[in-house]
Each structure stands twice: as structure tokens, then as C-alpha cells.
Amino acid sequence: MYTHELIEDVLKNADIVTVISSYLNVIQKGRSYLAICPFHDDKNPSLNISKEKQIYKCFACGAGGNAISFVANYEHVPFDEAVRKVAEISNYHDPRLQSERTVVEVDPTKEPLYKALADLSSYYQYALTISEGQQARDYLRKRNIPEAQIEKFLLGYAPLDGKATIAYLQAKGHSLKTIEDIGVAFAQLEGTSDRNAGRLIFPLEDPSGKIVGFSARKLFSGDEAPKYVNSPETRVFHKGETLYNYSRASSFARHEGYVYLLEGFMDVMALDRCQIPSAVALCGTSLTKEQVELLRKLRCEVRVCLDGDAPGQIGMMKILTLLQKERLPFRLVSNPGDERDPDDILQESGEGALKEAMSHLVDPSDFALSFYLNTKKLETVEEREKVLRKFLPYCASLPPGIERENYLVKLSKATRFEPEAVRSLLPKAQSLGQEAPLEQAPVYKNKRKEERLPKTRLYRAEQTVLYYMLRHQEAIDYFESKIGDFYYQINNDLANYIIDYSSSHPGQIQPSQLIGLIQSAGGEEAKTLEGALFSIYEDKATPSFTPRMLEVCKRTIEEEKGQLRIDQEAKQAFASLDKNAQKEFLSALAAKKRESWKGK
Fold it and tell me: What is the count of structural domains for the chain?
């Protein structure tokens, strides 16, 4: 966890308007700035950003905090990572951001491989711009890949003279052993050459964004070689542990709550051109357990969409089974009869058609029925009965009505059993066979926890004092000399934070930096305190500050704390008495309370 001093320095050098503007479209309105709130289904700009106070607040859903809070909540990343991202956006450099950071151990023997891969990628990108790269550029132009995407996805071209590529890497100081270890060296009689020569290059990255390999697409139609050639398995590249575009898509996936799992690179770029950046690709139709773990780390719904042809749909059924087993939340894109991949849909029908196609999401049971109905017809009676046993329990679990009837009709068509015969089996569905219905895993939801706090007279008085302490040194001095402590622990903790902050920051309290002090403590308690502080600071119903109001609050706090002590003593004493004594005790207690009320 970073120190408070570092967090404060980052916040001092950050501008919350600049930070939020890097994620949202922010508009200025007077002294404030507004944006569509990303933390609820906002239609009109409800997110209010104060440049003066360096805080944000949504008056619709209650979300609020400083620049670090925004990044942490928007990207769903740990606090320290949010600190680093704010510093990066603010162009603030501090060695403590690295020295105090938890460093992941990296095998030093792999560093030369990463360096060679990075240099080779730069060489490929350069080669795409020279005259020999024209055919590759023509191909990209034909596929409607704009220059911005070429740069974003680091696309390149491997020159036909593969020996020149090897010579370039050697001139950069990389040994032939290193070049062989990254998987590009191809031994020939006349010398070592680049196995990717003459191909369009797609760099493959690990989850942190480091290049670990390449996928090379052929450009010349007369070539009988495979359309795509991937880097061989190396010490840094394992195809089954890689998802294309994962490092770019991860922050969007965590925020949006979903990620599309696609088949190819061009599909990812097609969605990206349609403003759907939360997409990764398998580079095939098989999903491994290692790739499942990468998806699990995103904590979002997986939306599976392979090509619409038979191999793609069969691949989706296999993925469906694995995701089901691994208990990941997922749905599947289903467009029966349309065998095109996402890129084909965009090229042929446009952006609107692709967005519409990608929105056709169904649960596993619906997809599987459509698969047996449209892609893989059930041939034998045994196959039909097996599918019937698998899906009947799910059908029986649906509430009676249109949804169940529609599902029953689909099941009847897929298995080719009469609807009435299927319907007659529903009462016994739970005892039919051992097949389990296809169930959907629970979906991750990003909901703000609303802390329910007591709104008693005592609690309100304490929060009023806190409100004054946030704005007036006189109130802080009064609390320390006249009140001392609060009854509610959360209010006591906030008061101590305010005192600590004011002792080292003479003058008016900066709410953004005070939030930073609380954040430096870390943990769920810090998040609760941050939310409570913001709620107090933005409370418009608190009366204006006067010394007399402090006196009123102090008297209320003393009276209510005294009453609570009386009640506690009464409970303890009451429990030790017999029934007759308890009646007498209650009468005396009532008289005592009446006396205390007369004095108020």
C-alpha cells in the first residue's frame, strides 16, 4: 500500500477534470463540469465534477470521491493501480510509484527474449510503411482497416528477405540463440531466415501487454502454405495461455461488465470499429482452461461469438460445456441461419447490423437447442432421447406460460418428438435419467453497496459536528476541547482523520486530499469511511455554522449518550430480577425517564 504522502503528492499534481475526461465526455457548465454518470443507467448528465474541490459527485446514484476513487471504481482495479493510473494520466513521475510497488518476479533470462520480440515488432511495423509493404497495406485497405487501428494493434509486415530480418536483430545486439529462442529463426542451406517472411504480422501479447509472439497471415494467393502461421511454443509464448487483445480489453471489460470471446483478429477489430472495445479472440475455436482463468480474472459476463458456420457453432458448444463446468457467467450470440463472422457482417451490412447481431444473446439451453435444430441434426433415437433427458428438467423449471411453451416447442422440434408427448413427461422430468439441465452461472454484478446507518437524533448531531469540522477550524478545536469523542465508531474515526489532516495542513481542508488520507489506510473500512465522509460533506440540509449550533449539538450528544447509558444499565439490571421485581423496576425506570424529559 502506498504511503499517504505519496497519495497526497499524486492528488496535488492531478486535475480531476483531466482524469475523468480521459474516460468520459465532460462538458463545462459554469464553475462545474458535468458528464453522464458511468455508475448507473444515466440518461442526462448527473455526474458533477468540481475542479475547485477536486471531487466528483453523482446526485442521482450517490457515487462520489476524488480522482483515485473514480479510476478505481470505473476500471474496477485495486487502489494502488488506480493511484498509478492517475499519476500516468497526470504525467506525474515519482520513483516511489515503482519502489513502493509490489514487483512481480520476472525470470531475468527471459528479458532478452522480450527485448528481441519488441525490436522485431518495431521492425515489422516499419516494413509495413516501405514500398515492399504495399501489398500488405492493400490487403488492410481492402479489409477497411484504418490507419488508427494499424497503429493501435501494432500491425506489421515481414519482408521477403528473411535473412535481412535476422541481420537487423543481430545488429540490434541480439544473439542468434536469442533469435532462435523467440521462434522466428528458420534454418536454410544459405543461412538462417525469418519464418514469417512475406506475411502480414499480428503481434500477440501477454496479459500485461508484452509481446510474446506473432501470428503471420499469408498475402500471396499462389502460396499453398497455411493461411495463418503462429509462433511456435517458446519460453514466453504458449498459445493456450494467450487471448488476443486481452491487455487492451481488460479495463473495458471490468467496467462494461462483459467481454466478447471471438474467433479471429479481424473480428476483434470489427467490434473495435463499432465502439465495442471489450473483445478478445481465441485465434481458433478451442478454449483452454488457462484461457478460462484469464477470463475469470475480468469478473464479467463472457459473450461467446464464433463464426456462424458449422465448425464455429460446434466450437461454441464445446466452449459452452467448458464454461459451464468452470462456473463462469456467460451467454452466447445466436443468429441461426447467418454463417458470417463479425467482420463479414460489418463489411457487408454495416455497423448497425453488426451491433444488432452481437446483441442477440441467449442462455446455454436456448443455444444448445438451436444447435441441435439447425447445425447438428439428431439422427438416432438414442441421441434424441439423450437430448430430451438433458433439457426436460430445465423446461419443467420454467414457470407455466408462454416462455415454457416456446421452449417446449423448440425441444419438440429439435428431438422430433410430438409436443404432447414431451408435455406429458414434464411432471416426471426431475426423475428422468441422470442428465443435468444446462444452467447459467451467476452473473457478476457491479453494484454499489449502500451502507444503512442509523438516523437517530444522536447520529445526526454527531454528523452535524463533522460537517462543521470539515469547514471550520473552530469546530475542530471545539470537538477536541468540549466533546472529546463520538458514540458511533464510524463518526469517531472520521473525526480523528479530520484532526490528523488539519494538524499537518493549516487552513481550509481539501476534501480530495482528506479522502486520500483515508484511502491510504486501505481495506473495506477505508471505502466505508470514504463514502460516509462524502455523504457528510455534500449534505445540503445541515444548518449554517454558528458557535451556538455547536453548543446545541454538544448538548444533544451528551443527553443521548446519557440516555443510552441508562438503557444499557437498565437491561443489565432487569435481566437479574424476578418477575415482580421486574414490574417495579419498569415503573421506576419510566418515572426516571419522565424526569429526564422535563429537563430538556
Answer: 4
